[in-house]
Amino acid sequence: MSMSKSPMVPAAQATPVQTSSARKASTRTALAQAASAQTGQFSAGATAPRAASAGDADDKADTAGIRMQHIDKTYPGSPSKALDDFNLDIKAGELVVLLGGSGCGKSTALRALAGLEDIQAGRIMVAGHDLTGVAANKRNMAMVFQAYSLFPHMTALQNIEFGLEVHGVAKAKRRTIAQEKLELVGLSDQAGKYTQQMSGGQQQRVALARALAVSPRVLLLDEPLSALDAKVRVQLRDEIRRIQLETGTTTLFVTHDQEEALAIADRIGVMNHGRIEQIDAPKTLYQRPASEYVATFIGLTNRLPGDCHDGRATVFGRQIELLAGSQTGEARTLLIRPEALTLSVDGAGGVGASYDSGVSGSVAADGAGVRARVEAVHFLGALVRVDTVVVSDEWQRWNDGNPLTVTVQLQENELPMGVHIGSKVIVTPRVIPALAV
Q: Where in this protein does the record put region Disordered (predicted)?
């Protein structure tokens, strides 16, 4: 969050000489502004404007549900909207992830909720209160960025204490709260260490502890793990989820990492062109995508030919059910996950045999499955991914003259013995519903 510049003092205007105590106060104010700007912590002491209600108590019953309605945002000079009729509801205590590629609007949505971006249309509600025109420092939210934004000349404990001081917490309470939050993120033994001496993962834990220390109504996380290496990223994402469940803080998490989103979210909203294409529980989103964009954005997807009628499709000689929203008719495209296919040895030639070009008969003898040649075998630990090419000219014609490639993912112990590049195999769909487009 950028700091606003102080107004220029006219040359003719006399500037009062500051006393030593005044200079200290001025310096302290500047540091407080810097802390607020760097941490993205929005006032924890200030209470958000409250909806009029007789006898309404400010307690646990005042939950932090979020509603963003019909939000529009266009940046100056941009030909398109960053947010285009954007809508999002988050239940109190829920962790929702906004997932999408660069430029889809996910960070803009988070910043609009925080009050860091003006919006041209729409309304933002938190716990029944309209925050649309409320300043960022009055929204009782905390934000953690990709950059850690910690003071290097302060210890981990001092960074958290200073954030509490900025928000008006009494000195007697600051150390206790700071120590509690360091323990929460697993860094109680690092309290006296300067942040510049810490690893990236430890620094981000301190930033998270500092955000949680002010007891925010809403926690906002903008790509918080992007700068970390893979192993630390997995560890910290699990820690964030554990802490979120323990504290019950309503959380909005922004990322481009699919695995990250699937691992921690109560629900995921897949964003495309400034709006949410689909929002659902991770398993539902993965197994029952509502659109081609969602199906192809989340995980790997095969595009296979099939005839679709009466809620069912025939793919490589096997019938499967269609997902809601599927198109119907002949020669449709089915979006099928690699794990929704299985692979067996083609008995016509045995596991060690290889196809020559021009093999006839694309479908196996029993009518279920299609003959293919193995192009690559990827060992992924507990899983194996096998890339194959269908050997029939029939499917090549369907694929605009290009070879039809099919990827199959199996448990490592499901892979037939001896399968290698060039092996003859039969690829068969499992009886798992698919989306037709």
A: 1-60
